[in-house]
Amino acid sequence: MKVIVAGEAKEFKEGLTIAELIELEEVETPQYVTVSVNDEFVESGAFGSATLSDGDSVEFLYFMGGGR
């Protein structure tokens, strides 16, 4: 199946979970990443059970604190 990851089309096996994608994509500090699938945020507790579908668009987001 084809999934768009950070704007790039990639091929993956059917039934891929978000947790598996995070591992395959070697996401840095996965404990701090927020994931959106088709512009909807996915709760981190669901990463292991939420499966992706052909044509899904996934973005990895990191929220940084700071500022004044």
Strand order across the largest sheet: 2-1-5-3-4
Name the poorly predicted regions. Answer: none
Q: Could you say what the CATH architecture is?
A: Roll
Separate helix tally: 1
Strand content: 25-35%
- The helix fraction, in percent, is 10-25%
Description:
The chain is built from one helix and five strands. By secondary structure, it is mostly beta strands. The protein has a single domain (2-62), classed as Roll (Ubiquitin-like (UB roll)), CATH 3.10.20.30. A five-stranded mixed sheet has the order 2-1-5-3-4, with no helix packed on it. It starts with a strand and ends in a 7-residue tail after the last strand.
Structural key phrases:
single chain; 68 residues; mainly beta; Ubiquitin-like (UB roll); five-stranded mixed beta sheet; 1 helix; 10% helix; 29% strand; globular
Quick synopsis:
By secondary structure, the chain is mostly beta strands.
Topology:
Elements: E1 2-5, E2 8-11, H1 18-24, E3 34-37, E4 40-42, E5 57-61
